[in-house]
Write a structure and sequence with these properties.
The chain contains 14 helices and 9 strands. Bound molecules: phosphoric acid mono(formamide)ester.
Length: 361
């Protein structure tokens, strides 16, 4: 079993390391992540490898013999899906990804019905899961928990991989991977993903998907980031500082209509009022300018795409759904394939998948 180099540090030392150093310490010898915790673990080479693998897997999965092959790959492994924060598509797409690769799954979706209710610490819960399973996929309310638990397991006798499926308001790295996969597929026959303008709209202060995606897009040349939100819901200064450090171009605005005609991708997000500090806090913010409908879509380029991590409320009217530029349903399905590729890569299945693909396609 792989021993992470993170064990050379105390938790406080590890937590304080720059993201780039942490990414190296969390990598397998082939450079791909052992634990997938944040978007900064993925450089261009790793993103391309994962997207190419996802595309091969979805081809292979079209046939019965292909599915039998895929399901044989990790038939000997088990995954724990530990989701103590609500989810539909991330949970179901990870569950489906495990089924595609033959992994059996266990799940806890409510800490109140686990022994955490009796006072067991998160550390002991995670160590318990690692006794029975070979992979933990976790979504939690708490920022940084997946990272801390990876460090805890790295010190244990069973340092199994952890995949962060959403951690507080901070990161959602696998959502960013599926977003990039969607962008890549949308623009691959139209000059690629470089030199594009991406509009992020909605609740950018509390939306972890935008934080992870803007990080991942730093791997592409000359991306212009346009953050469109009401002032209390604007993107965090830490993301703008990171874009400054990397010399990336960005605009911070509350004028969606002005920038819609310039966008190559419009990434809508919902108001995340589950994070409100006081009841009705979000309802007091005027968000009426941060919604799109079929009429407003007329302002977008014919080649632009409309994305959303989902779930949506009313920020995308249903009259947009039939527009060929509406990408959110395909985006969601892409999540299953990129998550399948990520799990396959975590367990070093790439070369077998590539060999099967070469022999059969
Ligand atoms: N995009 C996303 O994380 O959706 P769920 O909350 O339904 O998993």
């Amino acid at each position: 079993m792989m021993k992470l180099r993170a064990t050379e540090y105390t938790w406080e030392q590890f937590e304080a390391l720059p993201m780039e150093t942490k990414a190296e310490l969390l990598a397998k010898p082939d450079g791909m992540p052992f634990c997938t915790l944040f978007a900064q673990q993925f450089n261009r080479e790793r993103i391309d490898a994962l997207c190419d693998l996802a595309t091969k897997i979805r081809q292979i999965a079209k046939t019965r013999s292909g599915m039998e092959f895929l399901q044989s790959l990790l038939f000997h492994k088990r995954a724990m899906i530990y989701f103590t924060q609500p989810s539909s598509r991330t949970f179901l797409s990870f569950h489906s990804a495990c089924q595609i690769l033959g992994l059996r799954t266990g799940e806890v979706r409510d800490a109140a019905i686990s022994s955490e209710f009796k006072g067991e610490t998160r550390e002991d819960s995670i160590r318990t899961f690692s006794s029975y399973f070979d992979l933990i996929i976790m979504r939690t309310q708490e920022k940084g928990l997946a990272e801390r638990m990876s460090w805890v397991l790295a010190k244990s006798e069973r340092p199994i991989p952890i995949i962060n499926a959403g951690s507080g308001k901070d990161q959602h790295p696998t959502q960013a991977l599926l977003d990039i996969y969607t962008l890549r597929r949308s623009f691959e026959r139209r000059g690629g993903l470089a030199n594009r303008t991406i509009l992020y709209v909605g609740d950018l202060a509390r939306g972890r998907t935008v934080r992870s995606l803007s990080n991942l897009l730093l791997n592409y040349d000359n991306i212009r980031h346009v953050f469109v939100a009401a002032e209390p819901l604007q993107i965090g200064q830490d993301i703008l500082d990171m874009l400054d450090r990397r010399g990336a171009s960005y605009v911070v605005t509350d004028d969606m209509q002005k920038y819609l005609p310039e966008a190559d991708a419009v990434y809508m997000t919902r108001i995340q009022d589950e994070w409100d500090r006081s009841k009705g806090e979000s309802a007091r913010i005027d968000t009426s300018k941060f919604k799109i409908n079929a009429n407003l879509m007329r302002l977008m380029k014919p080649s632009a795409i409309l994305m959303h991590p989902l779930p949506r409320r009313d920020e995308i009217a249903t009259d947009c759904d039939t527009d060929p530029r509406a990408m959110y349903w395909r985006q969601m399905r892409n999540g299953m394939w990129i998550r399948t590729a990520l799990i396959a890569s975590t367990f070093d299945c790439q070369s077998r998948i590539e060999a099967f693909f070469r022999d059969n396609f």
